[in-house]
Amino acid sequence: MRAHNSRRALRLASGLVAAGLALTAAPHALAADSGDGSHGMRLTSAQAKKLTDRLQVDLYGQNTTGTDKSDPAEVVGTSDGSQPDASAKAAAPQAATTDAAAHVTMTPTSSVEGVKGSGATMPADSKTGDYFTLHSFGHVARSAADGTEQWTRSATSLYADWGVKPLRAWDTELYPPLVQMGYNAVSPFTPTSDQGYGIGDLSGDGVPDVVFSASVGENPPTGVRIPGTTMTSGTIVTVLDGKTGKTVWSKFYSYATTVQVVDGALLVGTVPRLNDGASLSETAQLTGTRFSYADGKLSESSTWTYDTEEIQPATWGAIQDLGDGKVAVSWDLRKTEGTAARGRTLVLDTNDGSVVWQADSALYSRQMRLDAGRNQIVAVEQADTSDELRYEVAAYDLADGRRTTLDSRVNVLPTALAVGDLTGNSKAEYAVSESSLTPEQFVGASTVRVLDGSDPETALWQHTTKRAAGNTSDAPVTWRLDVVNKKLVAAAQDDTEIGTAANSGGRYASLTVFTGKGKVSWQTKGATASPTFQDIFKDKSGRHIRVVDGDQNVRTYAFKDGKEQHLTPLQASMAYAKGIDVDGDKKDDLVGGGTAHGVWAYSGTSLLNGKPKKLWQATLPGSVHRIETADVTGDKRPEIVVAADSAVVVLDSRTGKVLKTIDGGGQFVRSVTLADVNGDKKADILVPTDALRAYTGDGQALWSYAAPESAGDVLFSDASTGDGKVYVQYTSVKSIDMDAPVMRAVQLDAKTGAEGWSIEPKAPASAVDGKLRGGLLDRAVFASPEIPYADGHAVVYTWIAWAPLGANGADTLIPYNVTEIRDGRTGEMLHRTYTGGLWTHGNYFEGDGSLMQAGAASVRSFLPGGDDRTLFLVPDSRSGGWLTAPGGQKVVVTGVQGGVYLWDPSLLDGEHPYPDALGKSPSISAGRNFATADFDGDGVDEVVSLNFDDRGVDTAADLIGGRYLISNDSTPNMVTLKLS
Fold it and tell me: Which of 128, 521, 656, 908 stands the most exposed, by the fewest C-beta atoms within 10 Å?
């Protein structure tokens, strides 16, 4: 999708700067009723912009709140599949080699697209419990109540239907479309809308169809080619058939923020000022279209238009179905130097768009709900922040539009509104959520207030959520309220562990059900809820709440008591996979997993023939951070062993059935190593967390090795085995932040776990203060007879040190990886060297009589006698290994930012840096990891480009005192590549 150039390398380098960042917390400003004449605070344009940028749900994964971008141990950047450009390569000496391997062509044969972004569910069939899922990055699906997928539409397939193509000649992929979802608490004049999608039967078949507006070519602003227009960005409103998922209608608009189905008509509200390419004479309009259906397509049968006649910044506030062919709509006119702020509320006839009545307000209309019992529309209206931080709850009489102020609040921002009976008196109460600001313009607290519908100035009860300890940013905001069955349901953010990898990007949320009297009936918090979307539905088994959590799992809770009734993982980013024969055809198939709490198995031959066939999927207790395969049960067939956040799970490879779950005891389970440690000819399971524990395949504990109590809290690295020994290292928790962290390189007896030796590593002479700052966790230890030291008994350990950069005599300090090679028998240190900056280590692997290391933009070879060679590469490689190419040739394969590359092993001496690749995949923007397997049994490996384990790698870094956050705007794909 993006050309291979140098932006990525520059971004990573710029992250390695030493500095500090601190914010101070202040008491939150108390909200007050404005009936006493008090005036709310005013915001400058700069203050309003900061708040506007911040106070909205992070629908597109760009939030890095709580990270210190100046800390050299915290890498924060973006990854868009772009690579270092050819400038470094052009400056390097080049030479032809006479024994070069043959060029290899890598041809994509299939792509499996994963879901990404925030997800919402909508009911598809109340009788069967079927539901739709819609994601902010343009993925739509229909599933049965048990999670079985009935149809799915990827972003790529939508682009194909729309006919949208890349604008730039070098682009081979498109950034995903961005569905209009979410809500901005500060300004209505942003490209977010909580009414940019919906459902309704437009085809007349009795099945609700899915409608949504999605922006294309705009974020990032690369531009696209759109049929029928010269504009290179905008929105496409689409209708998908609810039965089949097929596109039955779509249309381009300069910018459509509001899309709803009301009384059988599709209402579309346009805001042309949100598109710089729109004609300056285009006005904000609302259209109502009715359709006829034939031959699988919708045709427009009638359309009416309501025109605001405003070319100034105007946006749509809300749409509310009133029944009986009437709809309430509102639109807002932005305050400028020559224009006063205004909100206009209207009731329209849905048949012809004629205005029944209209009423104006000096406040912006944000949300509307119907109070049928009192024959009025209830609205939340908000002042322009340059006038006053204030909102009102207002009522509009259904008959004539007469406006009444029900309640007024200052120094708070309204975020959600619900109307419904909470007291059982048959009349509705009004629930409003609001957020109050500190003097520094951070949200200090959020409050849900329930107002007496007959006396709205009276609050029946309220519930306030303040910032968690250590949170110097915004308190959790409540973004959604629903009144159902005399209970109030609230979806909100959760700032527990804010600023850590566990809650990066707003992963945590809360789902709370209140009784009508304001008591918490039940609540779930953490990575188990959605901050803004909740689907409350009823079927034959009762009432339920369905959400899509931050790990891309659909969770269903019992409405009554919050019991989790079902969890369905959605295939999202796939970071890990292994080749294994699943279906018994004696050819490799593929099992993989990533963000969601699941593992998926695909037929290998189907990945080659372009029609991926899912063999099974399994549900796990957490996200996938490692997959290994071996016979751990003794049945002569390999099992699949998965590190899944909180546990290790053993799966039957033929069926995906969970054979055993080994609980991690509350620790982060990020890795497993499989090896026969007890000599029974079955692989055992080594699990590194706060100790190194060995288990049999059926979960029986064999032994456990922990650091001495005096060491304090420690973390163990991945383990490696050889010579009847287990090698591992441990380091203090948050070691990078400590003055004197504890760390040891350890050798253990494989059968008993008894300590053979334990050695404190020493820092290189040039390290700052002569200290090491801890040890890496991921793939940091490696034992192999191919390591050319200690007569084939060597083992590698990897530590961290601060040292001078060394360029032009500069004394700038940066963190480095330190590689040690030790005699595995005695622990004697045989060789030590720096191997790149912190977080650049990928993995060690065997060479031909050498040790090899894949890392950032390089492959290193460690030869005997301290002869270390570094081959610098473009693009930016991250992990490596060997594969069998056509003709039986062995070549080096590296996963890179944006795909997979192959390299001639004869170049590994490093004498000719930046060589031409032996083979390379087309640009795969979300690619980084890879897997190899022989899917057709011809003896030649295929390669599967995988994605990156964002949270897993970040969590491992966070545990030792750093961070690693690399955002990627691209659609996650699992791409199979055939070599020829």
Answer: 128
